[in-house]
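Why run this: before we spend reagent on co-expression, it is cheaper to look at a predicted model of the complex and decide which construct boundaries make sense. The entries below are exactly what would go into the expression plan.
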Amino acid sequence: MMARSLLLGNEAIVYGAMRAGVEVATTYPGTPASEIGDLFAKCRLYMEYSTNEKVALEVAAAASLSNHRSIVSMKHVGLNVASDPFMSLAYTGIRSGMVIVTADDPSMHSSQNEQDNRLYGAMANLPVLEPAIPQECYDMSYYAFDLSEGLGLPVLLRTTTRVSHSRGAVDHEDMEIGGGETLVKKRFERDPYRFVMLPANARKARLKLLGLVSKAGELANDSELNCTYEVGGGSDFGIVSSGHPSTYIREVLEELGIGGRVLKLGFTHPFPGEVLKRFSAGLRKLLVIEELEPYIETMVKKIAHEERLDVDIVGKALIPHHYEVGPDQILDSISRFVGVVREGPVDPSFTIELPTRTPVLCPGCGHRAVYYAVRRVFPKAKTIFTSDIGCYTLGFEEPFQTADTSLCMGSSVGMACGFSSFADERVIAFIGDSTFFHAGLPALVNAVHNSHPFITIVLDNSTTAMTGHQPHPGMDRDERGNLAPAVSIKDVAKACGVDLVREVDASDLGATIDVLKEARGFDGPSLIVTRYPCILLRDRERRERGERVKRYEVTDLCDNCYLCTDRFACPALIKDGGVRVDGRLCTGCGVCAQICPKNAIVEVVDEL
Amino acid sequence: MNYNIVTAGVGGQGVLFLSWVLGEAALGEGFYPCIGEVHGMAQRGGTVIATVRISDRDGLGPLIKKGDAHALIALEPLEAARFADMLSRDGLAVVNTYPVRIKDYPDIQTLLSVVERRCETRSYDAFEVAKKVGGEGSANMVLLGTLAGSKRMPIEEASMKAALRKRGNAEQNIRCFEEGLRI
Ligand code: SF4
Ligand code: SF4
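The model came back. Tokens follow.
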């Protein structure tokens, strides 16, 4: 029985995997992959949010070796963290089907870089599947398990933001995927010569892997995921494409009224060379349309060279190397390639200069008060602020500007180690609670052992907020909302040997300032946990309980000094010829009332 | 047949729900909807845009070329102006006039004129309308109602109501949707 549902690409991946009988799913949340874990957490299988992507991949690998089909999902940069086990797992191979989902983020909608993880597949010699629409997410996720098991290799399922976050019609097996945690223990058959990567074993494994690559290449050449179609009549013009950009090609050709032969690739590594040879017969012009790196283009040019094909091949010379490639860019590049002259912009629209609306800390986020306090105690000109990945990267914006660096998960603490020793300024590292566990911890240990004197501020909102509120090791709940042992950041820091460890309510301005002053006078690594639960979550809970929220207003005592709007900048404080509180945005945290020097902001007391 | 709708606003205003209702309703009528969403960083008070494409053909990508949108539903005037050039000249814009202010926020009338000079525009304070029928949180449904009431979309009111019934707060949402139909 089949059913049709409106599914997000990420949800379709879960449906496909459940259809394939996946038993273990692991992840560390990261946009644009997060919804995969979110849905698995409601499914009938074993699911865990692991501390980071490396651990998640290792847990999923062990599941596969003990005969459970497993899937691990992460954002593109997550695979950098997991790249160590990833590369060697290609050598050992796996047992039950294992799928590694990487969701790349062209245009960097929510990331620090854009990287093309198809190249990881090529580097590790592992098969890569590239879905373009939610239906293909379902189909390829299902197929990937068989492919993986057949080859004895993990399979890389590579999406991009526009695939993961597209919602479309998906025909799927009509099945109930929801349910509680289920797990059946099975036997792990030992095979140390295969699974222990001593150099002697690894050398043999390398040869075996290369043999499997050519077997995978045959499968790619026979795969229905690589298909050809024609638009219009006979033409010597061809297009090779994959992933999200491939979805616009038919429309654009039709709009331009030109014919062409199209090769749409879904199984892209090992590259299906035979398919390309058949496809390119008789073509004179070939355009490669792909996002980010010229992976397909390079392969096509290599084959054309080896086969001495007389065809003009163009890729990145016309298709942007950066950002997403959508219908506007495709229309433009095809017209230029085939020499269609399009009318210029005869229809320039009337427009004005518009301010960009950059993301900000939410109204009532307690951690805004921490930035405010830090800027009160530490002069910006004499302090280096290392920041990290998460909501608190938003401290970058005015008026706080408490981010001088932010590289990757955990880098705030690692770089603070360096700056505190090599730069002649005080250093403060900002990191979130989930990120602290993910990659901050090894750097903190480093700070203690190598005596790097700086302050680490852990902005603890008791969740992984930016990616949609997933749990982490510091919380007392697991992915299914059951009680779980919480690892205390404060205790961990003490156990690491950090001498000054403090914890403070982030929305208590006076207390936060006192603790910061104490740390300022301390020589050596110190750590402050500022606690305030994510206001988005708390607001939702309060609304569900029908609780009344405190309301604040600005009284006549206000003398328009604009300290609250300019230096504290809660989005609920509106400056229009004076200051007022926007009741639709205010969450009643009360921090602005602590800040106003005139005590002009007061709680509204309802009359009985 | 292709019908392209842009929904835009600020994180937390219900842009994604709006696009979901359109998609689910289109699916209910046997079309192939495709929605491009934005998650993550942009949802923290940033600009949020979702593109909805409704087609009788499978396999379409979610993005809409500049000038190819048949309709725009904007929950906020600045965001309406930002995406006005996605609209085709014979398109329709339905715009909430209540602003979510930021630094250097332009004059609201100027913002509306950017949209009005692009194509036919219906603008009003959707919060006020929603409040009247008891659901300020459903301002997005009022605007959806207005687009539906224009009879330009290939999907029926009944399908949209059926979609709304699948999610929480259905009664309030439908009330607001119906109120919008009349505007
Ligand atoms: S109480 Fe003040 S600081 Fe807190 S959310 Fe309301 S306006 Fe913003
Ligand atoms: S800080 Fe107080 S006095 Fe100054 S503008 Fe804000 S409300 Fe008015």
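The radius of gyration of chain B is 15 Å. The CA atoms of residues 69 and 123 of chain B lie 18 Å apart. Bring this page to Monday's planning discussion.
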